[in-house]
Amino acid sequence: MLEVSDLHCAYGNVNILQGVSLSVTAGEILCLMGRNGAGKTTTLKCIMGLVRSSSGSVMLDGLEISQLPAHKIPGLGIGYIPQGRRLFSELTVAENLEIGLMTRNSGRNIREQVLEIFPRLRERMDQTAQTLSGGEQQMLATARALCLEPAILLLDEPTEGLQPSMIEQIRQVIISMKNEGAAVILVEQRLDAVLSIANRVTFIENGISRETVDAEKLDRDNEYLARYVGV
Amino acid sequence: MDLGPYLLLASLEGAVQAAVLALTAVGLSLVFGVMRIVNVAHGEFFMLGAVFAWWIATFFGGHPAIGFIAALLIAPLLTGLVAVIVDWFVLKRLEYDPEGTIVATIGVLYIIQQVVLMTYGPDARPVEAPFNHRFYFPWFGYSSYKLFVIAAAIAILIGVWMIMAKTRIGLVLRATQLDRETATAFGIEVNRIYALVFGLGAALAAMAAVLIVPIQQAHYLMGGDPLLLSFIVVIIGGLGSLRGTVVAAALIGMSDGIISVFFTPTLAKILATLLVAMVLVYRPNGLFGTRSA
Ligand SMILES: Nc1ncnc2c1ncn2[C@@H]1O[C@H](COP(=O)(O)OP(=O)(O)O)[C@@H](O)[C@H]1O
Ligand SMILES: [Mg+2]
């Protein structure tokens, strides 16, 4: 479904990605793992077109999208949940969702579906995003992306700084998206979270994707984790 | 006249100033807020609005109201178009770099001024007011057109507020202002929004100018004062805050009017500039600003 090959990109003249390849199919969860600064966030931004790639390709269902203007990419059905949530802080919950709904002209029924997944947000519709708790903010960031009815979901460390109950809820949403046939790319540092939901894991080191392995092959004393993540 | 009526007269003059200033400054504030650039050529868009108004009014002839209404509709449109062209050919190419755009808009300022000097000439020319009744208070008569200016400016400001608060495009503008990268990740074409905002900001300055030309004549150097006062207002109101800008414009415009009537216009400018200095020292985010960056 989404196939990234040999992606290179730079900020100014500092090379950040120097050969990232990965692929994810419908109904599958691919985890990206790697140390801080390895280039996981940059990989997702590059897929979204927010950072221009200097070479390599991003194919979505056979269509090369890496040369498209960035604002055209979400409309193809890619929902992005950025690291640190990046909500429109002074806009209300309802307005944040509206931005998501506008992306692909989704109807009111989509908004209802999303609010059924996150009933807490319904009680907070007129509050500004910055007044929500951390967990509610993550719900809103996720809900905003689900408003696109995404075929592909990119999540960048969605459980960062959340309480266990909230982590579990986010996990359930990711699993149900997968079961509905979405392709999911998840950047995650927490090993237990990865092992319990990932199908495959791609390890990134210094801007290069080193290896992709089935999640079943990983366990706590696996050499991959020691080498690429340092646990 | 007693002090009371004199004060009323001074307040009316101040309110006219405040109304026009609020429109101009909201244009500047919108551009700064959404695009994060300081538009030094903003006063020239004001001047262009006045000059276009003269041309349009002269072209239409007939009853002054026809020319005036035509000017009020067309001059902001033409000015907005000039601004969109500037955005496309200059600002976009600089990738909206904060320092680069300051220097570039200084250049644009001189280009617009000189082109107007070469075509329109060095003369100050009036546009006739659409109507010229006098409204009689018990103590003095007052131009009904000036009262209309106050009302029209308030109506336009309410219109801007409605667009920003209640429409889809307003929502998109606010989202872009808050986080352009995330806005892009949700399908918003930031470059188009920037062109629109730059055009809208210039059009607001032009509307203010069309309202003022029946009172003050159109002249190629008339952009200086509105630029300075708009900067003062935008700084006092808090960069990018529309509500703060309107309140600060009312404050500066009214006090400018009243102090000018009772003392001298120079004293009014001195006090306004002093206020800016105080705000910069004690409330660097403006009286109403919230953003810390
Ligand atoms: N806007 C930027 N400008 C310059 N360098 C950046 C920028 N964003 C990230 N980097 C650098 O790119 C590298 C990869 O960052 P990132 O993709 O955020 O890593 P990760 O998400 O894996 O922790 C880091 O070395 C980081 O310092
Ligand atoms: Mg990261």
In short:
The complex is a heterodimer of chains A (231) and B (293). Chain A has a domain at 1-71 and 189-231: 3-Layer(aba) Sandwich (Rossmann fold), CATH 3.40.50.300.
Structural features, described:
- The complex is a heterodimer of chains A (231) and B (293).
- Chain A is of the alpha/beta class and 231 residues long.
- Chain A has a domain at 1-71 and 189-231: 3-Layer(aba) Sandwich (Rossmann fold).
- Helix content of chain A is 32%, strand content 27%.
- Chain A contains eight helices and ten strands.
- Chain A has helices at 40-47, 93-103, 108-117, 119-122, 134-146, 164-179, 191-197, 223-228; strands at 2-11, 14-24, 29-33, 53-60, 63-64, 78-81, 152-156, 183-187, 200-205, 208-214.
- In chain A, the strands form two sheets. A six-stranded mixed beta sheet of chain A has the order 6-7-8-3-9-10, sandwiched between helices. A four-stranded antiparallel beta sheet of chain A has the order 2-1-4-5.
- In chain A, strand 4 and strand 5 (63-64) form a beta hairpin.
- In chain A, helix 2 (93-103) runs parallel beside helix 5.
- Chain A is globular.
- The mean pLDDT of chain B is 92.
- Chain B is an all-alpha fold and 293 residues long.
- The N and C termini of chain B lie far apart (50 Å).
- Chain B has helices at 3-35, 42-60, 64-91, 98-119, 144-166, 168-178, 180-185, 190-212, 224-237, 242-262, 265-282; strands at 134-136, 141-143.
- The longest helix of chain B has 33 residues, at 3-35.
- Chain B has two domains: 27-130 and 140-222, no CATH class; 223-293.
- In chain B, helix 3 (64-91) runs antiparallel to helix 8, helix 5 (144-166) packs across helix 6 and helix 9 (224-237) runs parallel beside helix 11 (265-282).
- The A-B interface holds A 48-50, 69-72, 74-75, 80, 82, 86, 88-91, 95, 98-100, 102-104, 144, 148 and B 168, 171-172, 174-175, 178-179, 181-190.
- Magnesium ion binds at residues 40-41, 83, 156 of chain A.
- Magnesium ion binds next to helix 1 of chain A.
